[in-house]
Amino acid sequence: MKILYATSEAQPFAATGGLADVAGSLPKALTDEGCECSVIMPFYKNTIKEADAKTFKFVTEFYVPVGWRSQYCGVFEKDVNGVTYYFLDNEYYFSRDFGIYGYYDDAERFAFFSRAVLETIKHTGEVPDIINSNDWQCALIPIYYNIYYRYQNDMRRIRNFFTIHNIGYQGLYGFDLLEDILSIPRHMAMLVEYDGDINLMKGALEVADKITTVSPTYAEEIFDPWFACGLDRALANKKFKTCGFLNGIDVNLFNPATDNGLAEKFSVKRKSGKATCKAALLEKVNLPADDDSPVIGIVTRLVEHKGLDLIREVFDDIVNMGYKVVILGSGEHFYENFFHEAQNRFPGKVSFVCGYVPDLARMIYAGADMFLMPSKSEPCGLAQMISLRYGTIPVVRATGGLKDSIIDCGDAAGTGFTFQTYNAHDMLDSIRRAYDAYGDKKAWGALTTRAMKADFSWKQSAKLYIGLYEELYGWE
Ligand code: GLC
Question: Per the confidence metrics, is the pTM higher than 0.90?
């Protein structure tokens, strides 16, 4: 079976969040399980390293309709561990100065990309059985398929999966974009109309053959207005085609036994290296290694739904309990200012690094004792799985993928500390339970062993995806 995985980001070529990790690892797992999976993404000139770009092979070129215009598209390919990655080239859209999103013409950039994905299929003749599109940036793929391609003979049998990695980002635009930019005929406007705006994700939900999301719990939560960011009404009659599979992580990439980025490697059998990693982390973030106090790490985008208001509310209590706190992240200035200020108030106890620094993130996963993720909502979350792999115990709110991946220690067989309600003192209680548990070195050792042995490889989920792909593929 042939799968085309369409994404706006994928490791190691462009990344702003978890989607990139998934797009960089799930396709390989699907291939290992016997599918032929290719990835298709924009050829970003600013994030793809020149050395990489030089190894791309030119495949073909053509023009893509964008409203009333015709825009150039070059197709390049590269084999990455047995998976073909296609890169769609147009310098006007994808040769930009910084980052990959946040431009005034994002709607047009991803309309171009989405249409170009379908044109690539037409021009290369490589017709997939399934297109799996991800998030709002690719939401126009199933929409265009339905408007323009489903009646074309050679593309008739393609089935469309749409995966929601975060329902909070929907692609909202004004109606003035409908025809000239988004190439949606006026009589089809109802596909994307929602609450008086254009909502691209809503359109994808309407037309996709299957909607998947990244954990079983999140697949239920999105029907609840508290989580749905307004889309619950669009989803209400789509339960029959919605499901959730828990993401995995690349267990070779995140492996403390082979990770060259660590101050000392370690494993379940030889855990002593973790202490070296802790010392290296403290040194790196300018905190003293003067006592045995536990280090709690936070690596996150600094946005509201990551639960930062809970942390803000009881931050002093956490530090006063005896923790050292290391925070890495950037985002809303309000939170950045809070952590800068907290660092000044608690010298030697709190360290905040503002930014997205993958090497430091890795040092925190490996060197911290606990990892805090009190998310208001969390479709899946990957950091808690990576932490487990490095024997760093997650303290999480039981929501979405956090609920599906972390078992509370209360029953003595767990892998972390969880709390249910979105409440700062419930979170604090879990943080206190973790603190107390840390004091019992023998039990803590058993806990970190369980954590490191937990299996979050892609194997299981890849099989679930394939099962569903096959179910759809059988349809006439
Ligand atoms: C988004 C979600 C995160 C998930 C990731 C990959 O970034 O917010 O929870 O793990 O996508 O699916």
Answer: yes
